[in-house]
Amino acid sequence: MYEERPSRLAGAVVWTHTPTGGDPRPVLPDGCMDLLWNEGRLLVAGPDTRAYLPEGPTGAWAGLRLYPGTAPALLGVPAHELRDRRVELSDLWPAAEVRRLRAGVEAATRPATALEELALERTTPPDAGLRRLVTALATGRPIAATADELGLGVRQLHRRSLHAFGYGPKTLARILRLQRALALARRGVPYTDTAARTGYADQAHLARDVRELSGMTLTELLGGRGERPKARERPGGG
């Protein structure tokens, strides 16, 4: 069972997931990074460029999904160094500090809330420019126009994006477009209309992107064979 709620941390989502048997569901790329708790471990999920199939322990998970671009300031690590990776928090922070934090989360009645408190204590105010960038790309704004609006050159925007999101603005825009399309399709919008409304050339283009980013067809995703329910839909999921 998967549950989530908005966090007190701007743009973040607090979530829990308890597997109920059957095959694990892949987590789709969404531009976010997560702080995770599982079986006594604190981990970080880096930004994905493809669907991630959970492996290892199958116990209950708790997580804090951070708004795109906000995790590097919290973790002290550029996002591109964690791209398509799951790492122990102790690989990023001093081991003694992580042991103390782990003890606090383990003692908490609600580990997900403890993760939220941890981040609230350590986070810095969000970068307004990065949030504007995500908002623009999530609504389908062209990259060059977005760079102009932010007063950045295209190369400068690419460098900032690598640090903040783990990949360039083109990849981020593609991922956010997929999330927009999935949100419409879940609401019953026909695939042809979904493709047109989210900037795909046609339904075949949408189908190719879904296959490349998720490893499944759109029908498989919506039919429950992939993607945990409503998981990691921010910010492009509507």
Automatic annotation (TrEMBL):
<keyword id="KW-0804">Transcription</keyword>
<protein>
    <submittedName>
        <fullName>Helix-turn-helix domain-containing protein</fullName>
    </submittedName>
</protein>
<keyword id="KW-0238">DNA-binding</keyword>
<feature type="domain" description="HTH araC/xylS-type">
    <location>
        <begin position="127"/>
        <end position="224"/>
    </location>
</feature>
<dbReference type="InterPro" id="IPR046532">
    <property type="entry name" value="DUF6597"/>
</dbReference>
<dbReference type="InterPro" id="IPR018060">
    <property type="entry name" value="HTH_AraC"/>
</dbReference>
<dbReference type="Pfam" id="PF12833">
    <property type="entry name" value="HTH_18"/>
</dbReference>
<dbReference type="InterPro" id="IPR050204">
    <property type="entry name" value="AraC_XylS_family_regulators"/>
</dbReference>
<dbReference type="Pfam" id="PF20240">
    <property type="entry name" value="DUF6597"/>
</dbReference>
<keyword id="KW-0805">Transcription regulation</keyword>
